[in-house]
C-alpha cells in the first residue's frame, strides 16, 4: 500500500474517533436539535407538469417564509430532484433523496404513477411523505401508511362530484370520457362515471391517449361523430391547455359541453383564453373564494412570485402547514413519528381553500366547489359536495 493511501485511511480513522467522542459530549444533543430539517422536493421541473411543480414549491416555501424560515423551531433546508413525471425513473429518484441526501421529509409529487413509487419507498424507509398533488387513490387506499399524508385530493374525490352535477343539475344523459391512460386519468373517469350513472346518466365510451401525448385530432373526430350530450376530460398542465384549445378549435365547445375536474382549467386560463370560457369544473379550490385567509394568501403569493396562485400553490402551502403542525407537536424532533402522526391526524388545517381535516387514511376531507370559467378566473358557483371524504377503499390504518 502506498504512503498516500495509508495516510488517507489513517486520517479517516482519526476523524471517526473524533466524531465518536464528540457524540458522547453533553452538547451533542443540543447540536442535533439545532440541525436543519431536510425537506426533499421530488417534483416535475420539466415536461407537461413543470408549471405545477413550480407552483407547489412556491406555495411550500411561502408558508415556511411566513414562519421566519423555521417550523417547530427548526430551520428548513431544501433538496431537489426533477422527477420528469416519469414512473420508470421514480424509484431511483426517490432513493437519491432518501439515501444520498438523507432527507427527513419527502414532499412530492404531481404524477400519480411516480407518487406510488414514492409511497412504497417512504414506507420501506419509514420516512415521512407529504403528497402535495398526485391523487392516486391507492396512496390513501391500499398503500396508506402511518407516515404518508396528502394535502391535496384523491382522483375519485374531484371527479365524482362532476358526475353528480352533470346528471342532476345539467340533465345530461349520455357522456363520453377522454384522458391520458394512467392511474390519475382512469381513476378520475371512474369517479365521474360513478357519480353520473348513480344519478341516471350513462357513459357510452371511454377514450384514452398515452401520457403525455397531445395528439387529439383522431379522438376529437370520433367525439364529433358520436355526438354525446357531454364530454368529461382529465388533463392537466400543458396537456390541458392543448386539449381545451383543440376541443374549441374543432368547433365542439358550441354543441357539446366539456366538463372535468378543475385541473382542466386551473393555472391554465392565460393560455386557454377564449377556448375555456363558460366551462364547468369541480375542484377543492376556486379563484377569489372571498375569505380573509384566501385573500391574504393570494395577495402574498402574487407579491412574492409575480404569478397568480392556483390549486397547486395551495396544496404546496398546505403541505408545509401539515409539516409545521407535526413538527411543532414533536418539539422539532422528526424522529417522534407517533407524536407527529397523532398531531396531524387531529389537526384542522386553515387552508386558503377553507378549513380541512384528514380522513383516517390521511386524505383531506373537504368541500368540492362547482366552478365556471369567466375571463381568467375559475369562479365559484357553489358547493357541489360538502365535506367530501375519499372512501379510502383498501386502507388498513
Ligand atoms: C395525478 O397524476 O395524480 C395528477 C396530475 C395532475 C393533476 C392532478 C392529478 O392536475
Automatic annotation (TrEMBL):
InterPro entries found in the cross-reference section: BCAA_transport, Leu-bd, Peripla_BP_I
Annotated Pfam families: Peripla_BP_6
State if Zinc is listed as a keyword: no
Q: Which UniProt keywords apply?
A: Signal
The answer to whether keyword Signal applies is: yes
Q: Where is the signal peptide?
A: 1-33
The family note in this entry says: Belongs to the leucine-binding protein family.
Name of the protein: ABC transporter substrate-binding protein
Query: Lineage of the native species?
Result: Bacteria, Pseudomonadati, Pseudomonadota, Betaproteobacteria, Burkholderiales
